[in-house]
């Protein structure tokens, strides 16, 4: 019998009941909650007269539609100008109070994007099952945890039963071999992977990311990679536990302590795929082939390296791709443009659950330090992922560097990644964004998103158009 | 949940691959704390020329004439024909809520994104995967004749095209059972309470650090 993959191990250790048709009940260790996908779930509990199964397994924080300006944030939830957003955030506060769930509310320094907050607090631990009503829950797989994005009905189901009805996915290994080039980051790696396998390439799979190119990444980088597993169609992204993982977790507020810590570390060392484990699909990329990536279209798979020409619809043979490319070209206003550098940028956004951690901000600050944002740009904003990331960045003086360069330094939240708050693109505006989705209208009605790494976004902010950050920093 | 057994309905063809959940229901409408009322903003950016706002009346808004749901022949459609990777992107259940609220009972496509597919079953909306050629044939037949209807039979797991061709589809037994009977998932899982408790006891022994109560 062949060995088990990491995914197999996590699945087996959480299996409560296997059903004949392949579906199963799996036990959930941690549920993260935010204001957008939870109100209807709490309402469902109330209507049915149910209570949460185990309140200590839940952790909540508002993130999607909190404002990010100091002016609006100074008075907490009362300061939210949009009345509809205010109701949603207030509803989360009320629900957490009513059901006894720990919440980091808008006035708490620990508030932030759920996928930044969970790991930062040590609430996310290796070997756990983690769910959240948000597709980017795959982020937590960076810790060797089985993490799924779920819908609101499932949020309610997990609250009420501590279990999720799931069908086991197939196993895919994406291996990135070799050392990454300077200024090539986790974001470039994952965009290159999506470019290689497509946005549906991982559908039905749990993807484990491995190889030296992944192992050399920090936890922040690993979270960026797993975060975008869903953009390749996979609900689950995973990275094996190693010393980097354990060192990151140690000492965090919710991490186990003392004898529990020793016991946990012993158990976590098993959280790797066995040598003889069989994967249903294996994809291999070479690190040396990966250059800074930029998306040109309206799907994360429409991505190229900075020095490549923008692909044209007429060069495509697959009819579906041809049509998709033509539609994207029109939406993105690419007529008459051949290279990414030909696109004049209107805004730059550095933030989101993909790239708003301290490492991301340090790299962006390093690129803009002593330089000035291009005068052609309407706006460049930096939105830290949590109150604690913000505090750390300020301690290091990163806020001063950003502001001196002409970038706005904001309060934590999801912000322009999905434009549910006031931060959004205008019709037809191009944005270099460190977020995860470039869908039509994602960052604002008619907005044109280009996904990039923090370093590439920072360089673009200074140049006013896309440049290879590797060349840029030499001058 | 409303049961789904057999449904005969007018089919609307949405000839676009990789339709994402931002297209199905744009983010500004996610601020609602209700499960209903999303139908008028289904496919908002494809349907209307202006940017829609929550709580806005949609009757007077400028529409995109060419979009299928704005064409008189597809008024009242309840079966959506779609292309590959339908529902990709976010986990928002507002997407199936919007489709359901508009009046769709079933979506037929060559493939779906996982989370969307899963969310449909929780809301009495049946997502059906057919072979690409079969979907092609349905698109062709629906275009051919105004008022063309499709029959979706969950019990027998068949889709019948307007011309009478029958295609079979797969669905998990458990999901089928729940949908046919309109069963509440949570109630069913709670019947397994003793299994869940047994699992917890064992797990508490093996991994006690997972069960510590958190302070505020």
TrEMBL record, chain A:
Keywords: 4Fe-4S, Amino-acid biosynthesis, Branched-chain amino acid biosynthesis, Iron, Iron-sulfur, Isomerase, Leucine biosynthesis, Lyase, Metal-binding
EC number: 4.2.1.33
Physiological role: Catalyzes the isomerization between 2-isopropylmalate and 3-isopropylmalate, via the formation of 2-isopropylmaleate.
Taxonomy, superkingdom: Bacteria
GO MF, any single term: 3-isopropylmalate dehydratase activity
CDD domains: IPMI
The name this protein goes by in its record: 3-isopropylmalate dehydratase large subunit
Record field: catalytic activity: (2R,3S)-3-isopropylmalate = (2S)-2-isopropylmalate
Pfam families documented for this protein: Aconitase (PF00330)
Pathway listed: Amino-acid biosynthesis; L-leucine biosynthesis; L-leucine from 3-methyl-2-oxobutanoate: step 2/4
Entries under HAMAP family matching the protein: LeuC_type1 (MF_01026)
Cofactor note: Binds 1 [4Fe-4S] cluster per subunit.
Binding site for [4Fe-4S] cluster: 353, 414, 417
Subunit structure: Heterodimer of LeuC and LeuD.
Family statement drawn from the similarity comment of this UniProt entry: Belongs to the aconitase/IPM isomerase family. LeuC type 1 subfamily.
UniProtKB/TrEMBL annotation, chain B:
UniProt entry keywords in alphabetical sequence: Amino-acid biosynthesis, Branched-chain amino acid biosynthesis, Leucine biosynthesis, Lyase
Residue ranges of domain Aconitase A/isopropylmalate dehydratase small subunit swivel in the record: 1-132
Matching CDD domains: IPMI_Swivel
Gene Ontology process terms (BP): L-leucine biosynthetic process
Pathway it works in: Amino-acid biosynthesis; L-leucine biosynthesis; L-leucine from 3-methyl-2-oxobutanoate: step 2/4
Coiled coil spans: none
Catalytic activity: (2R,3S)-3-isopropylmalate = (2S)-2-isopropylmalate
Cited Pfam families: Aconitase_C
Gene Ontology MF annotations: 3-isopropylmalate dehydratase activity
GO cellular component, one term: 3-isopropylmalate dehydratase complex
Documented EC number(s): 4.2.1.33
Assembly, per entry: Heterodimer of LeuC and LeuD.
Family named by the database record: Belongs to the LeuD family. LeuD type 1 subfamily.
Function: Catalyzes the isomerization between 2-isopropylmalate and 3-isopropylmalate, via the formation of 2-isopropylmaleate.
Name by which UniProt lists this protein: 3-isopropylmalate dehydratase small subunit
Gene: leuD
């Amino acid at each position: 019998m062949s060995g088990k993959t990491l995914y197999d191990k996590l699945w087996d250790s959480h299996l409560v009941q296997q059903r004949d048709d392949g579906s199963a009940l799996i036990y959930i260790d941690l549920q993260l909650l935010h204001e957008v996908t939870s109100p209807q779930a709490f309402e469902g509990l109330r209507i049915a007269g149910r209570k949460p199964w185990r309140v200590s397994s839940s952790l909540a924080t508002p993130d999607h539609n909190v404002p990010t300006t100091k002016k609006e944030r100074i008075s907490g939830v009362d300061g939210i100008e949009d009345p509809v957003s205010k109701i949603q955030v207030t509803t989360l506060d009320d629900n957490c109070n009513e059901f006894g769930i720990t919440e980091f509310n808008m006035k708490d320094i620990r508030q932030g994007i759920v996928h930044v907050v969970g790991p930062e607090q040590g609430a996310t631990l290796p070997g756990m099952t983690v769910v959240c009503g948000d597709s980017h829950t795959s982020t937590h797989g960076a810790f060797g945890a089985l993490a799924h994005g779920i819908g609101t009905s499932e949020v309610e189901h997990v609250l009420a039963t501590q279990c999720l009805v799931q069908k086991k996915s197939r196993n895919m290994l994406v291996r990135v071999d070799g050392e990454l080039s300077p200024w090539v980051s986790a974001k470039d790696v994952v965009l290159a992977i999506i470019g290689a396998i497509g946005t549906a390439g991982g559908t039905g799979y749990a993807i484990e990311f491995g190889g030296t190119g992944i192992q050399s990444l920090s936890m922040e980088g690993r979270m960026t990679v797993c975060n975008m597993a869903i953009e390749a169609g996979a609900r689950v992204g995973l990275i094996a536990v190693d010393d980097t993982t354990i060192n990151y977790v140690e000492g965090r507020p919710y991490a186990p302590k003392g004898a529990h810590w020793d016991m946990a570390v012993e158990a976590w060392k098993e959280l790797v795929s066995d040598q003889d484990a069989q994967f249903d699909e294996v994809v291999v990329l070479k690190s040396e082939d990966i250059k800074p990536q930029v998306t040109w279209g309206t799907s994360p798979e429409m991505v190229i390296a900075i020095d490549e020409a923008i692909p044209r619809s007429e060069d495509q043979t697959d009819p579906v791709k041809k049509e998709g490319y033509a539609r994207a070209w029109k939406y993105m206003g690419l007529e008459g443009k051949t290279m990414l550098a030909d696109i004049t940028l209107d805004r730059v956004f550095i933030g989101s659950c993909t790239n708003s951690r301290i490492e991301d901000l340090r790299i962006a600050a390093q690129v803009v330090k002593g330089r000035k944002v291009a005068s052609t740009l309407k706006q460049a904003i930096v939105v830290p992922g949590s109150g604690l990331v913000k505090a750390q960045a300020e301690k290091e003086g990163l806020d001063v560097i950003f502001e001196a360069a002409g970038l706005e330094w904001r309060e934590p939240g999801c912000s322009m990644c999905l434009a549910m708050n006031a931060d959004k693109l205008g019709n037809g505006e191009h944005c270099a964004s460190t977020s995860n989705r470039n869908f039509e209208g994602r960052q604002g009605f008619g907005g044109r998103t280009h996904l990039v790494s923090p370093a590439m976004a920072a360089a673009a902010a200074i140049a006013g158009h896309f440049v290879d950050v590797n060349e840029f920093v030499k001058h | 949940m409303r049961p789904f057994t057999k449904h005969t309905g007018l089919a609307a063809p949405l000839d676009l691959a990789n339709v994402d959940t931002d297209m199905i229901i744009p983010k500004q409408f996610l601020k609602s704390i209700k499960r209903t009322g999303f139908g008028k903003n289904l496919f908002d950016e494809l349907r209307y020329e202006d940017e829609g706002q929550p709580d806005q009346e949609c009757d007077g808004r400028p529409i995109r004439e060419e979009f299928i749901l704005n064409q008189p022949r597809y008024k009242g459609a309840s079966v959506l024909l779609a292309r590959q990777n339908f529902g990709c992107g976010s986990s928002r259940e507002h997407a199936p809520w919007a489709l359901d609220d508009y009046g769709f009972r079933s979506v037929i496509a060559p493939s779906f994104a996982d989370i969307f597919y899963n969310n449909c079953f929780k809301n009495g909306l049946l997502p059906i995967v057919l072979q690409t050629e079969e979907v092609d044939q349905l698109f062709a037949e629906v275009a051919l004749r105004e008022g063309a209807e499709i029959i979706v039979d969950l019990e027998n797991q068949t889709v019948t095209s307007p011309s009478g061709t029958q295609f079979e589809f797969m669905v998990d037994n458990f999901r089928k059972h729940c949908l046919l009977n309109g069963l509440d998932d949570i109630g069913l899982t709670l019947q397994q309470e003793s299994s869940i408790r047994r699992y917890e006891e064992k797990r508490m022994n093996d991994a006690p650090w997972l069960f510590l109560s958190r302070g505020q």
